[in-house]
Amino acid sequence: MADTQGEEEKHVGIRPGQHRSRLREREAELGELAATMAAARRGNGHAVFFTGRAGMGKSVLIEAARDMAADAAMLTLSARGEVMERDLPFAFAEEFLGDAGRGQPASPGDPLSRRAFVYDVARSRLREWARSAPLAILLDDMQWADPDSISLVAFLGRRLAGLPVALVGTMRPWPAAGLSMARSLAGEGTARVLDVSPLSAAATGEVVREVAGDSVPPDLIRRAFDVARGNPLLTRAVAHSIAREGSLPEPDVPALGGLRQVLLLSYLVGLPPPALECARAAAILGGRVRLAAVEAVAALSPDAFASGFDALVGAGILQPGGHGWAEFSHELLADALRDDMAPAQRRLLHARAFRYYAGLGDAAAAAPHALAADLSGDDRAVTVVAEAGVRALTRGAVQVALAQLAAAVELAGPAASAQLLLRQADALLAAGRTADALAAYQRLLGPGLRPLSHQMIRDVRAKMARAQAHTGRLDEALAVYDELVRDPGLPAGELVPLWLERAHVVWEKDGPAGAQAALEDLAAGGLQPGGGGGATLTAPSAPTGPLTPLGLAGSYFRLQAGDPAGLEDLKRGAAIAGQAAAGSPGQALPSLNAFPLYASACGMTERYEEGLQLTEQAAERLRSAGSPWSAIPLMITRLGILLYQGFPLRVVAGADDIEEEFGLDALMRPPLLAVKAWALAWLGRTGDAAGICDAVQRMRGGQSWFAALTLATVRGEILLARHRPADAAQVYADVEKLVARFGVGEPCVPAWAGGAVEAALAAGQREQAERVVAWLEDRDPALPCRWPRMTAVAGRAGIAAAAGDSDTADRLYREALAMPSARPLDRARIQLRYGTWLRRSQQPLRARAVLAEALQVAEERGAAGLAGQARAELSAAGGRRRRQHPAGELNPAGELTAQESRVVRLAITGATTREMAREMLVSVRTVETHLARAYRKLGVGSKAELRQRRAEFGLGG
C-alpha cells in the first residue's frame, strides 16, 4: 500500500535501466501482498486494495505484486485506469478481461440483459483462467476506471473465495467510486482495504541525502518533510531541488500547493517550446496517449512535433510504449500540467481533441473532450456525445451510457430535441431506473418544451405507463393505458401491443378475472383476441390454425381461472416459439411471452418435468441470445415448480442465484421473494420467511394479486408451524376472500387449500374445512392435476375423523395416500395427519409405519418443521427415533460426499448452479440435489451463509 522509491525510477526524471531504490516503510503493505498471493495459491482467493494520494507509490506496489506473481508462476492480468477513459464503456475491464462484451450475439435485448451477458462472460473467463494456473489480477489507478468496470470488479470480487485468484487494486481517495466499491467489499468480508501511509521524517531524510548528498543539514530535511508531507514522489522532487539549488524556500502553508506544483513543473525547465506544447497536449489526452493524437492536439508541424516529443522522452517525462503509444512517467506530472493551464488554453486543447476523435468516427473517445471543452450548443458535439451514449447502452455499459446521454442533454441546453430527451428517458427505463425514467417521461409531457407530435405523445405516454407499472404504480399505469387504447387515432397495429400490456397490468393488479375482463373489453370493441389481433405465431408443423399473443394470454388467464381448455394452445405456442428460437428478449413485459406462459401452465397442471425442461432450455436460449434478463420469469417459474416437487433447499439456492445476478424491479422482485419465503417456511425457518413477507408487503409490487395471495398463504403456513391453528385459519379465511376477489379457479395458483384445510381442522372449524374441500371438489373434474383431488379426499377424511366417523376417515385417508402424487411434501403432510389420527385412535403400530415414511420424506427434503412434528408423533407412537445431531451441532464437512464437497466449494466462489453444472459436466438438477444435501448436512440455508461460515467447515477462512 504504500510507496517505494522505485516508483520514481519508472517516473519523473528517472532513465530506463537505472537501478531501482529499495522500498521504504512498506513492510505492512508487502506483507499483505505476500499473504494475498499465498492464499490465492492455496485456492482461497481474496482481494486487497491500497488507497492513497497521488505519488504515494501505489503503482510500485502493483509492480511488487507483479514480481511476486512471477516468482510464484502465477498467470497475471492487469489494467490501469486513465483519466480520459472514464467515459468509455468497459474500457478498464477490457484491459484485463479482453472484449468480454463485444462477442455477444446481436439481439434486441435491453441494456441490463447485455450487462448481465458481459458479467457472465467475465465470470466464466475468470474461472477458466484460474483452472489453468493461479491468477493475479493487478488493477492500478482504479479511481479513473469507468463506472461499469468498477461494478464488474465488485461482481468478480465477491466470487473469489475458493478460487486461486489474488486481486490487487490501487486507487486515490477521489474520485470516490473505486474506493466506495473496495470498502463495500471489505464490509462484506471479501476484501481488505489498506491506506498507504506517508513516509516518515526519517525516511524523508534518507531520500533527500540519497539524492542531494549526505551533507544536507537537518533543518533543510525538516523543511523538505514539511513540503512533501511524506509523499515519496514529492520527496524526491524536493531532493532534486535541494541538489540543484542548495536550499528550499520557507514552507508557507497556504502556498505549499503552489510550491509542490513548481517542484513538479521544474522537470520541464529548459525544454524547448515544442516539447512544452507536446507535454500539454499529452496531458489533455490522458496519461497514456497515441502519438498521432498528441500531434493533432499540439497542432505542430511534423518536424516540430518530432523534436518536441524526443525532448520529452530524453528528459524522462514521457516513455514510449511501442505501437504508436506513449505515457507519462508519472501521472502527477500530467495532473500538474493540466492544473497549470489557463482555462482558455485547456478548452482549446480539448476542442482539438474532440475534433480529432470525431473525425475518426470514435464517438466514445470524442465525447469526454466535448464535455471538457464545454461545447455547449455545438450540434456536432451534441450528436457525437449522444451517439456515444447509445453505443455504450448497446454494450451494456449502463452507467457510462446514462452519463453520456445526460451530458448530451446538458450540452444541448434549452435546444435539446425531444428525440434526445426521449432517448435519455428510454435509456433510464431500459437500465432499470424506472423512477428516474418516469420523471423524465413526465418532463417530456410537461410545459416548456417544443410541442410534440401526436405520435410522439402516444409513444411517450405508453413508455410512461410501462415505467409506472415497473415501479409498482399499477393504478396510475392503467389510467394512462385506458386513455391510450381509447384514442380514436390509434392505428390498429399499435392497439394490440398496448392492449396486451394493459391486460398484463390488469392481471398484475386484479388477477385472472380482471385480465379476462380486459380481453373481453377488447373483443367487445370488435377485435377478437384469438383472431386477427397482433402478430401470429405459426410454424409448418403447427397442427391447427395460427396463434396470437392475445389468444395465448387469454388461454393463460382462463387456465388460472380454472378453465384448461386453452392448455394445448399454450403448449403449441411454446413449441412454435422454440422452433423459431424467437423468444422476445426485448419485450417490455416478457412474462407474456409463450415460453413462460406454458412453463407456468405446466406448474399448475403437474407437468413438472416438462415445465422444468422448458424453463431450463428457454432460459439458456435467452442467455445465449444475449438477453438473460428476459429469462427471469422463467427462472421464477422454475423455482415454483421445484417448490411443488418438494425441493425447498433448491428453491432457496436458486433464489439466491437470481438475487445475486440481477437487480430486480418492482414487478419481478415480489414474486421471487414470495416463492423464497414459502420455501423457507417449509425449511422451518419461519422467522426468515416472516421477515420476507413483511418486507415484500411494504414494496409497491407486493400489492399485486399473486404476491398478496402467496404472502397470505405463507403467513398461514408460518402460523401452522408455530402451532397457532386458530390464527392460521383466520389468515386462510382471508385467502379464500382473495381467491374469490381475483377470480382464481386453479387450486395451484398458489396451492393454498391444503394448509387451509389443515388449519381449519386443527382449529376445530369444520365449516371452514368443508367450504375449502367443496371448492376443491368443484374444480377437480375439469383440471388435469391430481393434487387437488388428493387434498380434497384427505380433507374429507379429516372432517370424518372430527365427526367421529372412524371407518370413513380411515378409508378416505388410505384412498388419498394411494393416489399417485408428484408432490411428496404435501403427501407427507397428509401422512402426518393420518398417522397422528391413528396414534390418537389407539393404533400405534399402523401409525408408526405411516409416520416413519412421512419423517423420512421430510428429512430428505429438508422440511424441518414437518420433520419435527413427524418425529414427535413417531416417538409418541413408540417408534424409534433416528440418531440426530444435537441441536446446533453441525455435521462435519468430512461427511460430505466428493460431489457434495465439490459443489460446496464452487458455491463458495459465487458460481451459479448453471456454472457448476457446466464445470462438473452434469445437469443443473444434479447440482441442485448435491447442494441441497450439503446444505442439510452443514446446517446452512443459503450461499451467503455458506460463505460466511466456510471456516467452520474447513473450507478456507
Summarize the structure.
The chain is mostly helical. Helix content is 63%, strand content 4%. The protein has five domains: 6-195, Rossmann fold (3-Layer(aba) Sandwich), CATH 3.40.50; 201-268, no CATH class; 273-484, Serine Threonine Protein Phosphatase 5, Tetratricopeptide repeat (Alpha Horseshoe), CATH 1.25.40; 493-645, no CATH class; 893-953, Winged helix-like DNA-binding domain superfamily/Winged helix DNA-binding domain (Arc Repressor Mutant, subunit A, Orthogonal Bundle), CATH 1.10.10.10.
Describe this structure in words.
- By secondary structure, the protein is mainly α.
- It has five domains: 6-195, P-loop containing nucleotide triphosphate hydrolases (Rossmann fold); 201-268, no CATH class; 273-484, Serine Threonine Protein Phosphatase 5, Tetratricopeptide repeat (Alpha Horseshoe), CATH 1.25.40.10; 493-645, no CATH class; 893-953, Orthogonal Bundle (Arc Repressor Mutant, subunit A).
- Helices cover 63% and strands 4% of the residues.
- The protein is built from 45 helices and eight strands.
- The strands form two sheets. It has a five-stranded parallel β-sheet with strand order 2-3-4-1-5, with helices on both faces.
- α8 (201-212) packs across α10, α29 packs antiparallel against α30 and α29 (632-644) packs parallel to α31.
- The protein is globular, with a radius of gyration of 34 Å.
